[in-house]
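Summary of Year 1 activities. Much of the first year was spent building the evaluation harness for sequence design. The harness presents a backbone, in tokenized form, and records the residue chosen at every position. We chose the following record to illustrate the format because it has been used consistently in internal testing since the harness was completed.
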């Protein structure tokens, strides 16, 4: 059994920052991609009946994507994704991540709404709340290469994923141009995707692959 198994669907979604954290840290893992149609039959395998879930070698299952991301980001200190010795930098990383989490919570709330209310709520998010948060994030990043400085952290993985979620077209109600005005966020995304470790991961990414 692999030391780490990440359980999620065969889409980027909430697991992609975690996958990238493994890849950037150079840590092998089993990337289990669950077909949506099969999930109802196996959801009882997971503590909360949902994914992502990180399974350790001894069978322990860890829930909650943000907790998993922080854990994986700490596994290889030399990668610098979630530095243990720089408390102020960790505080800034957590601050940015919690801002992203606020938008994800609001988006998730729309999933259970009827169609009319869902689209009305998403329109308000796209026109008011998300631009406000994106604008503040853009301002906080300033002219830095990455969100907190010259080195990539888990905050960058999460921010980039957030931008992809809202502009991918997978979720109705959000225009593909939503992130266009935020040049600092766009620069972080470009720098992340230019990193050789990320390039390598994206090239080899396939169902069930171990990186």
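For this record, the design step produced the sequence shown next.
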């Amino acid at each position: 059994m692999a030391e780490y198994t990440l359980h999620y669907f065969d889409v980027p979604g909430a697991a992609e920052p975690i996958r990238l954290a493994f890849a950037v840290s150079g840590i092998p893992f089993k990337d289990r991609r669950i077909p949506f149609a099969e999930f109802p039959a196996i959801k009882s395998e997971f503590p909360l009946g949902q994914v992502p879930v990180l399974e350790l070698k001894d069978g322990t299952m860890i829930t909650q994507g943000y907790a998993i991301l922080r854990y994986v980001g700490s596994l290889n200190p030399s990668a610098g994704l979630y530095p243990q010795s720089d408390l102020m930098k960790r505080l800034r990383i957590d601050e940015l991540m919690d801002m992203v989490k606020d938008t994800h919570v609001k988006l998730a709330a729309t999933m259970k709404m009827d169609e009319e209310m869902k689209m009305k709520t998403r329109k308000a998010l796209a026109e008011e709340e998300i631009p406000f948060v994106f604008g503040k994030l853009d301002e906080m990043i300033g002219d830095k290469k990455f969100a907190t400085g010259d080195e990539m952290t888990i905050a960058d993985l999460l921010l980039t994923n957030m931008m992809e979620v809202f502009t991918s077209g997978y979720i109705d109600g959000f225009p593909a141009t939503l992130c266009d005005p935020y040049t600092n966020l766009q620069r972080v995304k470009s720098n992340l995707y230019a990193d050789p470790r990320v390039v390598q991961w994206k090239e080899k990414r396939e169902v069930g692959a171990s990186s």
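The longest strand covers residues 4-9. Quantitative recovery figures across the full test set are reported in Table 2.
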